[in-house]
Structure formats: structure tokens, C-alpha cells
Design a protein that fits this description.
This protein is an all-alpha fold. Helix content is about 55%, strand content about 0%.
């Protein structure tokens, strides 16, 4: 009787513990991230294969002059410095009355 009870208890414990070791639960569906895992890498690789000789083209980019590009870079730098200043964290002192 005791032997049968120990075997039954062991089977119940095994049925409870082992499915939880298998990763995600049986009823859980794939998330959007899991379904698209690696898709950006494959896309970048495919886009590079479309024109593998693009780096050998030494002609200048057409459509933007130097002054416009310089202004765009300055706007980018100013925006980046504002973001860095606003994300500084520190200990906040609480004043007591």
C-alpha cells in the first residue's frame, strides 16, 4: 500500500513539474516578436544582395548641396544633446517641512 502511494505521488509530481520545464506553456500562442524573429536580418541581407557592387560607386550623391546637409547635421546634433540632457538621472532630494 505504501509503495503504491509513493509511486502515485511520484507520478503526480512528475506530471506537474516536467511540463513546466519544456519552455512555453502548451496553450500559449506565439507573439509577434517570435513570429518575426530574424526577419530584419534576412531583409538586410537580401537588400545587400540586390546590388553587391553599390560600394564601388564613387559618384557623389545627387539631390542635396553641402549647405543643406550641414544644416541637417547641426539640427541632428542639437536634438541629440537635448535628449541627453533630459535623460540624466540622479537622486532627488525630498525637502521636509
Amino acid at each position: 500500500m505504501l509503495n503504491r502511494c509513493l509511486i502515485l505521488t511520484g507520478l503526480i509530481v512528475a506530471l506537474v513539474i516536467f511540463p513546466s520545464c519544456g519552455g512555453k506553456p502548451l496553450m500559449q500562442k506565439d507573439t509577434l516578436l517570435e513570429r518575426n524573429w530574424g526577419r530584419s536580418y534576412e531583409s538586410a541581407k537580401y537588400n545587400q544582395m540586390l546590388n553587391p557592387y553599390a560600394g564601388k560607386n564613387l559618384e557623389p550623391v545627387v539631390g542635396s548641396d553641402g549647405q543643406t546637409a550641414e544644416r541637417a547635421i547641426e539640427k541632428y546634433r542639437k536634438g541629440a544633446s537635448k535628449k541627453q540632457q533630459s535623460k540624466q538621472y540622479g537622486i532627488v532630494a525630498i525637502e521636509s517641512k
